[in-house]
Specification:
Number of strands: 0
CATH superfamily of the largest domain: RNA polymerase sigma factor, region 2, helix turn helix motif
CATH architecture of the largest domain: Orthogonal Bundle
Number of helices: 8
Low-confidence stretches: 99-112
Mean pLDDT: 80
Strand content: under 5%
Helix content: over 70%
Radius of gyration: 26 Å
CATH class of the largest domain: Mainly Alpha
Shape: elongated
Length: about 180
């Protein structure tokens, strides 16, 4: 469909025509598919990115200037949704931790951690040891651990996070 026809559909959509809106969004699907096809490896994720792009286009219709070319505007939104996909994917990947069954913490039960890990934890500055022991070894929630230590939850989370970062450095030094 040509840009002029699509612009007409946008104008009708903005005027409240639901059929025009549906036609406009359906006409964008081949363009969206073509744009994401080579940029996202996992085919299972194509549908999610396509739906996110369609929603973003729909929500942004009021910002489109009908005197401008439609393609750069649509492409920019699609590219932003592709970038969002990779940002989310990388954030999730960064948070993944490979845990073997020997190091699983069960709330309320002392964890089965090896002596090397205990030695590394003991090498940490004192202010990081107790928050890590309470939350990661003894299985207390952040709220419970913060109450035990008489500090705010955010302070506890910061100490646990920084302590774990220091543990990661120590672990890398051992390898």
């Amino acid at each position: 469909m040509k840009n002029t026809n699509l612009k007409d559909l946008i104008i009708k959509t903005l005027a409240g025509d639901q059929l025009a809106c549906e036609q406009f969004l359906l006409s964008l699907i081949p363009k969206i598919n073509a744009r994401i096809y080579n940029k996202i490896q996992r085919k299972e994720d194509h549908e999610d990115v396509k739906q996110n792009a369609l929603m973003a286009i729909y929500k942004s219709l009021k910002t489109f200037d009908v005197s401008k070319d439609l393609s750069p505007w649509v492409n920019a939104i699609i590219d932003f949704k592709i970038a969002d996909y990779y940002r989310k994917k990388n954030r999730t990947k960064d948070k993944e931790v490979n845990i073997d069954s020997e190091h699983v913490t069960i709330p309320g039960v002392e964890a089965n951690i090896d002596f090397e890990m205990i030695d590394m934890i003991e090498q940490l500055p004192e202010k990081f040891i107790e928050p890590i022991v309470l939350t990661k070894i003894k299985g207390h929630s952040t709220k419970e651990a913060a109450q035990i230590l008489n500090i705010k939850e955010n302070a506890l989370r910061t100490r646990v996070s920084r302590g774990i970062q220091k543990l990661e450095v120590l672990m890398k030094e051992l390898k």
